[in-house]
Amino acid sequence: MFLDVAVWPILIFFGIIVIIIVAIIIASILIVVKIVRKHQKKQKALNEPVDVIEDKVQNE
Amino acid sequence: MMWIHLLIDGISVSTIFVLGGNLGTFALAVISYDVLAFALQPLIGIIVDIKKIEKQLIVIGLLLAIIVSYLPIPLLAVAIVIGIANAMVHVGGFSVTYQSSNNKMGPLGLFVSTGSIGLGLGVLFPQLRLAFFILSILSVGLVIFFYKKIQFEGDSKSQIKYEFDVFPIILVLLVVLLRGFGGSILPPLYVTTTVSSFTLYIAMFIGKAAGGLIADKIGITKTILFGFVPSIVGFVLFPSSQVPYVLSLILFNFTMALTLYLTIRSLKYFASFAFGLTAALLFFGYVLASGFKEIVIVEPWMGAIVIVASCAMILLANKKIMNKTIQGGN
To answer: Which residues span the domain enclosing B53?
Structure first.
């Protein structure tokens, strides 16, 4: 074993903290990505030409 | 907002240090406080960017900290509530500062700088808790009094165009992570007293405040090359001498406002989230360094690598980000 046994509990403790922080950071990034995608979809729908919408309505 | 930042850090840290307790509980309380105060900021930042509730967060956060600081409840509960309150005030205060900053780095640096003084006073002189308590009550009153004057016009939703360049964002965030890491693996090697420790907090305050103001005058590139890079000298060659070390600490903190500014520019419309993300990554770097120090003997040259790598990444990120924008940089 390359490390002193006494160091392991400390490293595990730091590991848990790291996992918590990383999880929160990733969650926040995913939320932002979701918001951006939702907004982009809305914008795309708003910018869609009228004739395309009419075609869609007719097809339905 | 600088004042509010100083107060929230002061009252938070002094309360935890005054309550104390046995070593295990105290350590758990400090860690819980730090994790909540830093890691929650990106999530709160998103709420602020969308709902625009920065003023409410400042008032509620400060009130929470004031109430909890003298409540007879267990230390861990105090630490948890104060951690959440701290994150709320930080993000709220930053949002108000940013919206009145007129795209300058100076105000951003000034806002983040006073946290060092609050932290230093809270850690080294926790008996100041009562003073922080009284001043916080007065400041909540002031914020409520000027509530309507703190009003900003946001972009209408239809005007918003989200365009993100991921590579420079990653570069800047890596610099922030390295600063948290480097700041922790580069402690002074001279014997510290209360006064010399407080000098370190003052140095951080000066560095953070000056970095933004100088960069507004001479640009990011010159500030990095003539400010940040020379910090190697004190850290690597004279870690045992107080004056060179303190000077290097001032220069090392120059990047605080710069990285914050670059992250905000890259994540436009999500400024508070950008601020929260830098805070969370700074703390993440600090935690990584704490674990790193348990398994590796830290040498001063490691600090030099951190500074050189940070310098290269921040210059590259600045070039990429400023190519896309008009203001700032050089």
So the answer is: 2-152
Which residues on A lie below 8 Å from B158 (Cβ)? 43, 46
Identify whether residues B61 and B190 lie together within a single domain: no
ipTM reported for the complex, 2 dp: 0.77
CATH of the domain at B245: 1.20.1250.20
Exposed, middle or buried: residue B289 (CB in 10 Å: 0-12, 13-18, 19+)?
Answer: buried
- Per-residue pLDDT tens over the stretch B139-152: 888 888 877 666 66
The structure's pTM equals 0.86
Which candidate in A28, A31, A47 is best for mutational testing of the B interface (most B CBs within 10 A)? A28
Distance from CA of B114 to the nearest CA of A (A): 24
B147 plus B166 within the same structural domain:
no
- Where does a domain end: B117, B133, B152? B152
Conformational region of residue B52, where left means phi above 0, alpha means psi within -120 to 50, and beta covers everything else: left
Residues B315 and B265 placed together within one structural domain of the fold: yes
